[in-house]
Amino acid sequence: MLPESVRIVEVGPRDGLQNEKDVVPLAAKVALIEALSEAGLSTIEAGSFVSPKWVPQMANTEDVLRRIIRRSGTRYPVLVPNLKGLDAALAAPQVEEIAVFAAASEAFSKKNINCSIAESLDRLAEVTEKAKDHGLAVRGYVSCVLGCPYEGAVPIAKVAEVAEALDAMGCYEVSLGDTIGVGTPLKARAMVEAVAERIPLGRLAAHFHDTYGMALANLLEVLRLGVSVVDSSVSGLGGCPYAKGATGNVATEDVVYMLNGMGIHSGVDLDKLCAAGAAISATLGRDPASRVARVFAAKEE
Ligand code: HMG
Ligand code: MG
């Protein structure tokens, strides 16, 4: 069973750029988000309200939100780790949705947000409650669902437990993050099947990084199970600041090319998407990680 259509959650402006050492100019971030919405992406994670000491690159998220020209029907969620981040999001212009995140690995939780999994879930329950009181939609992430940079293998039961906790606190969707891109298809399938015993498949999303080049294969496997929401990052930008060596998310261009080839609707214009990726890659001074984007760039020459 494959879905007829897939909703892509574009995380490039947040997950993609958060790991950049040099400050990406505000105008380039704004242009990227606008180009992505122009390409037809209906959900674009625009930034995060985390500690600027931990992730300096996201320090100007409020400015980004103030500057972007919004496209009607497009959602621009922001990532929030705690109540302080939520308050900043509530004070920022036109935030209608936040994303909260917890890990399935204790060591990663400590490195990424400086607290245990249990503490983070208590914290996020408060954040989610307050966000919903203010009318915001809340999406949840589970990190390290197919492995942890510090602990190695992560028990599937722990992934399901954390996902269920996020679902129970009111996240409308839980995104399962292979943060370091170590997964392989059968493991990805087993993990999603285990989570789907507790949360309906229709409320799950796949968030696969492409470190070992397995992300598309893993995605196909979970699409066959019926997952129909996929997180990806234009040009495969990114990596996690607290997962050394991990590369970016699966490239949006590669996902759209695969979906197009299988007749699955995403609503994304691949030419415009490649142009958006080419522009941010030029700003960053590197070639896109996406194989599809490189073919499109060669055709342009
Ligand atoms: P902490 O040091 O334990 O927190 O960090 P604290 O409460 O002691 O605060 C320390 C300082 O940060 C204080 O400032 C706070 O005011 C400030 P000081 O008094 O020293 O001047 N602070 C904040 N400032 C702005 N916004 C805030 C905020 N909170 C505190 N929200 C904390 C704990 C959670 C804040 C920190 O660890 C943090 O910000 N971590 C975020 C790390 C991060 O962004 N990681 C990447 C995103 S997760 C990811 O990429 C995975 C994902 O893509 C899925 C996947 O791939 O699996 C989602
Ligand atoms: Mg990620």
Task: Give a nutshell description of this structure.
This protein has about 300 residues and is of the alpha/beta class.
Task: Describe the secondary-structure layout.
Blueprint: E1 7-10, H1 12-16, H2 26-38, E2 43-44, E3 47-48, H3 61-67, E4 78-79, H4 83-91, E5 97-103, H5 106-113, H6 117-133, E6 137-143, H7 156-168, E7 173-178, H8 185-196, E8 204-208, H9 215-225, E9 229-232, H10 252-261, H11 270-284, H12 291-300
Parallel strand pairs: 1-2, 1-9, 3-4, 4-5, 5-6, 6-7, 7-8, 8-9
Residues 15, 18, 48-55, 79, 81-82, 84-85, 88, 101, 112-114, 141, 143, 177, 179, 207, 240-242 line the site of 3-hydroxy-3-methylglutaryl-coenzyme A.
Keywords for this entry:
301 residues; alpha/beta; TIM Barrel; nine-stranded parallel beta sheet; 12 helices; binds 3-hydroxy-3-methylglutaryl-coenzyme A; binds magnesium ion
Protein model, in words:
- The chain has a single domain (7-300), classed as TIM Barrel (Alpha-Beta Barrel).
- The chain has a nine-stranded parallel β-sheet with strand order 2-1-9-8-7-6-5-4-3.
- By secondary structure, it is an alpha/beta fold.
- The radius of gyration is 17 Å and the shape is globular.
- Helices cover 43% and strands 13% of the residues.
- Bound molecules: 3-hydroxy-3-methylglutaryl-coenzyme A and magnesium ion.
